[in-house]
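Reopening: GNAT family N-acetyltransferase still failing for me.
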Amino acid sequence: MKIKTISPNNKHFESVCFHLTLWIHQEFDYFLYLQLKWDLIDQYQLAKTRHKKKRSRNHFPKIIIATHKGDLIGFCRLVAEVLPEQKKIGPWLSQMYILETQRSKGYGTKIIEYVGLVAKKLKYKTLYLRTEDQEKFYQKLDWQFFEKHSENDTEFTVLKKNL
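Support: Ran it again with your exact input. Result attached.
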């Protein structure tokens, strides 16, 4: 298995957009796919421009993928913020996804460890995430409860991990 950070010109970028669209919207719609794809590209280009101008450490968002024998098996994003009311904390592990056929093989754990290394390399001491239903999985990986939230009738937990 290989894990790496990619840009929109990587050969797996289209597949990440496809799976992310299915996951978020529970169906594939070409227009939603294009909107998501262009949003990710715009976010990437904006972060790249900011990084060059300010020489800041906040070169976000980052797309991290895991591949096995050249095939995409999972991905996540490392982003500056997830909750608008929590702009002072971050970065965030976001949109963690392992293809269903690849689950329970340890790939998710490896991706999470890699994201922690990326954040640590950027000199962050804490990483955050939000989850609706995977709190126990993350707690097994030493994530700790931070706070509970509710948004649009959806309850979720914010967890943090010291790096």
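Residues 2-162 form a domain with the Aminopeptidase fold (CATH 3.40.630.30). If you still see a failure, please send the error message rather than a screenshot.
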